[in-house]
Amino acid sequence: MSTVEPRRVIATVCLSGTLEDKLAAAAAAGFDGVELFENDLIASAASPAEIRQRCADLGLTIDLYQPFRDFEAVPPDVLRANLRRAERKFDVMEQLGVDLVLVCSTVSPDAVDDDELAADQLRALADRAAARGMRVAYEALAWGRFVNTYEHSWRIVRRADHPALGLCLDSFHVLSRGGDPALIRTIPGEKLFFLQLADAPQLDMDVLQWSRHHRLFPGQGSFDLPTFVGNVLSTGYAGPLSLEVFNDVFRQADPHPAAVDAMRSLRLLEEQLGFPVADPAPQLAGHAFAELTVDEVAGARVADALTALGFARTGEHRSKPVQLWEQAGTRVLLHTASSTPDSAAIGALAVQSEEPRRSARRADAMGAPVLPRTRGPEEADLASVEAPDGTEVFFCDAGSWLSDFHAVDAGDAPGPLGITGIDHVALTQPFDHFDEAALFYRSVLGLEPEPVTEYAAPFGMVRSRAVCNPSGTVRMALTGTLVRRGEWAPAVRDPQHIAFACEDVLAAARALRERGAPVLTVPDNYYDDLDARLGLDPELLAELRAGSVLYDRDEHGEYLHLCTEVFGSRIFFELVQRIGGYSGYGVPNAPVRMAAHRRRRLANG
Ligand SMILES: O=C(O)c1ccc(O)c(O)c1
Ligand SMILES: [Mg+2]
């Protein structure tokens, strides 16, 4: 494996805005070059020469001009018109200073199924390109009328046999059709002129729609890009790794964070390919703490709830309005810093890293710079970075940060409830940031994404994806909506929760009832259905029902969980008990919980 870093390129079609917006974002994120989409050029008020200058000023090259469509295998009069059109585009390319044009396989009704004709005409085009010092990269679109596999495009390029004609490989077109990327190894590297990369979720749909709306950056979908790119590199291909992602969300998102997300995807891919990129992600021992940002009103309610859940207020921060709450090594911080009335939200998460400084270096290399921080002279030097949803993520050691708190008298507390740690933190992601968030946690923290699940919930379709470290001690559950969320205002907007691992949820439920804790009431219909579906032991069912405990099971084990009501605008707590090897999150119960939260909200006024 070469240790020379590949050139990193992004197609302008990936990003939102005008060409100027896109170029600025690509440059700021550290890309070396762009694939210039014709539409972006045509809509720009800048001349090609000015765009060339703009790119040069930004430190960007233009690596590819694209696309040139419907060129090959046409009748003579159409060919004449196509060659004339090509010469005009070569003029533009000359002014842009780009020497490679992408020709995608035809979808034209004028074209015929004739490889020899296609090869002859592409050779004629390559001749004209060569006369101007340019080259042509031929790409098989997965929906090309006759040529829709890379093997077929390679047969045509080989038949044309012209030094200025080569292939553009696009991972989407190959992998969406279930193509075998191993045959790429048989293509000489010098005939691979360009490599476009896109990931995608596994969807069973028309391939053109899939490609134009649902492509993702590498590492965000389910394609095996490391193997694909490994095959390409094995040919000796030394050109750019270029992202070409058509995606409805990225097309309307702020291009600056989108370009950072794109760059992160490439760095992770390079790491998977064996390029030296960054320090490997250190192992994480667990969640060190979760910090809630509250105002006085919600803060008091959260404090009451934590008390009922068996936590004790044990510390007060030396310089900030932050309380430390603990139960058997499980830690929650309450930070009174919100000026929004009755608000509570997760402001920060902390993971315990075997090497916090190395975690911070890795985060930086993955495009998540360490946040500036003010601290008192004696206080712990905690590095933190910002997740895509704005949550601050801290890297902690085993507990030196605890000395930032002075002990306070915990006062009367009803006593522990068998909570042993933070099982997971659930974060609703803003619509634009769902795929970015999973990639962030994967690349920055080394958490592995689990498969995406989707379910119908009272306020719309929800997508859910957990990310988890190999030992299962750090888990985050990310949720988001499939389409932008309606504005009719469900009672709980973008809920977040902290799920505490509990030794015995049924016993906890009994204690919570005695303590008069604000446990969320689950309706009888749910238990009737549980009985119908799972035929649970009647005693267990009765206990679940009495305690408003939710239940799930899979082939590995069982999951008992219960929720509190929502405090402030969006926070609730969950107690969870994993029995056997159950590794899910009770997703089937989420719609029931959401409806219950709305009922509770309306009842509370
Ligand atoms: O969807 C398209 O038309 C299109 C155009 C150019 C490409 O490189 C591609 O992969 C798809
Ligand atoms: Mg392509």
Automatic annotation (TrEMBL):
Recorded E.C. number(s)?
A: 4.2.1.118
Q: Give the family this protein belongs to, as stated in its UniProt record.
A: Belongs to the bacterial two-domain DSD family.
The enzyme class is lyase
What species is this protein from? Saccharopolyspora hordei
The segment(s) forming the VOC domain are 421-565
Q: What is this protein called?
A: 3-dehydroshikimate dehydratase
| Keyword entries, A-Z | Dioxygenase, Lyase, Metal-binding, Oxidoreductase, Pyruvate
Annotated binding of a divalent metal cation, by residue:
E139, D170, Q196, E244
- Known catalytic reactions: 3-dehydroshikimate = 3,4-dihydroxybenzoate + H2O
Q: Where is composition skewed (Basic and acidic residues) in this entry?
A: 355-364
Give me the residues that bind Mg(2+), please: H424, H497, E574
Which function does this protein serve?
A: Catalyzes the conversion of 3-dehydroshikimate to protocatechuate (3,4-dihydroxybenzoate), a common intermediate of quinate and shikimate degradation pathways.
The metabolic or biological pathway listed in the UniProt record of this protein is: Aromatic compound metabolism; 3,4-dihydroxybenzoate biosynthesis
Report the GO molecular function annotations: 3-dehydroshikimate dehydratase activity; dioxygenase activity; metal ion binding
Q: Which cofactor does it need?
A: a divalent metal cation
User: Its Gene Ontology biological processes?
Assistant: 3,4-dihydroxybenzoate biosynthetic process
Task: Please give the residue ranges the record annotates as the region Disordered.
Answer: 355-378
Q: Please name the PROSITE patterns in this protein's record.
A: VOC
